[in-house]
Amino acid sequence: MLASDRNWVFALFALGHCKLYTGSIEETIPLVERAIRLSPRDPGLGAWYWLVGFVHLLQSRTEDAIIWLEKARNLAPGLPYPHVWLASAYGLKGWTERAAAEIVEARRFSRDDRFSSIAQLRVLGPYSALAPKVRALFEVALEGLRKAGMPEE
Question: Which CATH topology does 9-147 take?
Fold first, then answer.
């Protein structure tokens, strides 16, 4: 993809996503930030911001995660993932009311019940597809959801 066009922004985002899933998480943010610089008004910008925020969350950079995830939520309010991971970040900060409100929004925009519990998120979310290294980091995000009030089962 990138061999034919080094500035293909969707390919940069997709490659960043692949890097996350395969365990090269430290390569994700630079790729997505490059896409953002190349296309700052892109219609996919909300998803791009979400991915950067999610990686910050996995790497326990909660304040950075909140900044990016709030941008993602504001640009793409109908996407459930910015809401749920923002709920996790808020939960980690102890902002439980804000976190609970974001879980409600994630559930509202989801097409299934993946956000009904931690167990469902493990089954229907990205958990099983993540490389073991990233799966371990995912536990931080799940802890934030527990603190936000998401039930285990």
Answer: 1.25.40
